């Protein structure tokens, strides 16, 4: 099939979190299964065109896009993913030329977000027409690309070719909905009524692009079965759109993400000082020592007096956002360090959480290290070099990092929610690979850490646990088949038949 992916992130070109990883890995998995995959995304100002190997698009030079009464010329560039997909990059200085993808925390500079999203969607849909490449499916990812499926209906509906394509919206995070004042609808060349109650894009007096995407896409899915259930059953997870999702009935589902086993492979990861496998963990010890050296972590103290066992290293890598629950870890840190743990933290985001980690690092030099930056290589090295990996998320649509941690022999400590619940069974179960807690309180995180510390004393038991986690397969083949089935059902419905 021909599938057009529209997205704001695609790793390694531009990435804020798991969206970039997930879209790239899904695209590669589908390409490997014989599909013709094209991806379309903005070329952001911080992307190093030369270094990344981005070239002028040989198929088409530019797209003139009429938007809000004026024409903007979008120059076309492309990157050929060695994994198969072709990534078309939209270059337009005024709207995409600045550094940054969404501008969280820098709202003023990104006050033109609706125009940016509108240009991305309009260019994404103009592209296939210019290329003479008609997709069977337009697959949009998250609110930032959801306008593509709305535009497909209203800009191309009823036309032959692109207008006959099916559409899918994958929600990687329901908390980000792209909500704007209602008059912004004028910028999209969409019927004005869509923005007025009970129009398809209106929500509580505002324009809600994600809601519009949910109601326009042929199929909607999110990225784990448990999160798909949580968002329709519990208003706290639904972020106001639970009922809207529920209204889609069986057209809304949860498909778990996989991980890109080539990019995240401890046996062949160029970011690591030494490779390792489940059969030979010697390289993991080197990664651990080198991580301590790189970050300035002091040598560990004997764990409960055992000279052969030092205290565990706990890794944290993630966006410092309310979603991730790190604020509840902060009150536990003094006790954790006192017990002999060391912490390697990498992340950027909300100031209150960053300040908490900064202060912990100052209180416990050599025991808590906080790297406040985005650093792909260090993320790999922390995941490889730590013994345990903490994800105490309040909600987690899927979560990729716990799967990376498992593959790299770092035992995950996770909250029982969303994709974390779907991927990490607790050690108390026969197939357990991590430590799972449920109440969203500091105390229960502390208790999970204590349980982990107890098991850490048993070297043989610990190695068995590590190896069991490393043996798990989180490949994309299974999830890719589910997406294929979704595309096939849509195609068959369009032809007026029943699903295969
Ligand atoms: P989310 O998408 O909610 O951020 P995921 O677990 O799905 O959570 O994916 C997070 C991805 O972002 C992982 O690849 C992780 O390594 C990466 N990441 C997050 N913060 C940083 C950072 N500061 N530096 C490098 N990589 C990061
Ligand atoms: C989002 C979610 C995360 C998920 C990722 C990729 O950013 O927060 O849970 O793993 O998207 O789907």
Which small-molecule species are bound to the chains here?
adenosine-5'-diphosphate, alpha-D-glucopyranose
Terminal residue distance? 16 Å
Looking at the overall shape, the CATH architecture of the largest domain is 3-Layer(aba) Sandwich
- Give the helix level as a range of percent: 25-40%
Largest sheet data: 10 strands, mixed
Say how many strands there are. 21
Low-pLDDT residue spans = none
The number of helical segments is 18
**CATH level-four homologous superfamily name of the largest domain:** Glycogen Phosphorylase B
Describe the global form.
globular
Instruction: Report the mean per-residue pLDDT as an integer.
Output: 95
Total number of distinct structural domains: 2
Any idea of the CATH class of the largest domain? Alpha Beta
Strand content: 15-25%
What structural category arises from helix and sheet content?
Answer: alpha/beta
According to CATH, the fold-level topology of the largest domain is: Rossmann fold
Please state the CA-atom Rg, rounded to the nearest Å. 23 Å
């Amino acid at each position: 099939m021909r599938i057009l992916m529209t997205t704001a992130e695609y790793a390694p070109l531009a990435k804020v979190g798991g969206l970039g990883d997930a879209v790239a890995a899904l695209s590669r998995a589908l390409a490997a299964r014989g599909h013709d995959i094209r991806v379309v995304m903005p070329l952001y100002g911080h992307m190093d065109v030369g270094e990344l190997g981005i070239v002028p698009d040989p198929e088409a030079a530019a797209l003139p896009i009429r938007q809000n009464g004026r024409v903007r010329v979008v120059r076309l560039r492309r990157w050929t993913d060695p994994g198969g997909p072709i990534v078309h990059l939209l270059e337009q200085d005024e709207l995409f030329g600045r550094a940054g993808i969404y501008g969280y925390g820098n709202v003023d500079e990104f006050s033109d977000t609706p125009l940016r999203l509108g240009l991305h969607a309009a260019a994404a849909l103009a592209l296939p027409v210019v290329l003479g490449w008609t997709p069977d499916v337009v697959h949009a990812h998250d609110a930032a690309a959801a306008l593509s499926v709305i535009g497909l209906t209203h800009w191309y509906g009823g036309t032959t070719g692109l207008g006959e394509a099916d559409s899918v919206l994958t929600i990687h995070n329901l908390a980000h909905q792209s909500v704007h004042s209602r008059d912004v609808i004028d910028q999209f060349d969409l019927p004005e009524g869509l923005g007025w109650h009970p129009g398809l894009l209106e929500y509580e007096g505002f324009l809600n692009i994600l809601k519009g995407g949910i109601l326009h896409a042929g199929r909607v899915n999110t990225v784990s079965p448990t999160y798909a259930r949580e968002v329709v059953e519990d208003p706290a997870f639904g972020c106001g759109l639970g009922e809207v999702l529920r209204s889609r009935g069986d057209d809304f589902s949860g498909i778990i993400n996989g991980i890109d086993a080539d990019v995240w492979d401890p046996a062949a990861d160029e970011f690591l000082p030494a490779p390792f496998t489940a059969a030979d963990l010697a390289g993991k010890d080197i990664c651990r020592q080198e991580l301590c050296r790189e970050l300035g972590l002091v040598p560990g103290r004997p764990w409960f007096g055992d000279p052969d066992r030092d205290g565990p290293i706990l890794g944290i890598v993630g966006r410092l956002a309310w979603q991730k629950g790190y604020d509840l870890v902060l009150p536990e840190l003094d006790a954790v360090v006192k017990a002999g743990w060391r912490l390697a933290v990498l992340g950027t985001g909300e100031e209150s959480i960053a300040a908490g980690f900064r202060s912990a690092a100052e209180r416990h030099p050599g025991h808590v290290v906080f790297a406040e930056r985005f650093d792909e290589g260090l993320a790999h090295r922390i995941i490889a070099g730590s013994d345990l990996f903490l994800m105490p998320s309040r909600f987690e649509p899927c979560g990729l990092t716990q799967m990376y941690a498992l593959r790299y022999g770092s035992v995950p400590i996770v909250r029982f929610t969303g994709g974390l619940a779907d991927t990490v069974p607790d050690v108390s179960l026969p197939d357990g690979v991590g430590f799972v807690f449920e109440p969203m309180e500091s105390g229960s995180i502390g208790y999970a850490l204590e349980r982990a510390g107890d098991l850490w004393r048993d070297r043989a038991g610990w190695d068995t646990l590590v190896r069991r986690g490393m043996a798990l397969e989180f490949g994309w083949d299974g999830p890719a088949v589910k997406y294929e089935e979704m595309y096939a059902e849509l195609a068959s419905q369009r032809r007026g038949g029943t699903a295969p």
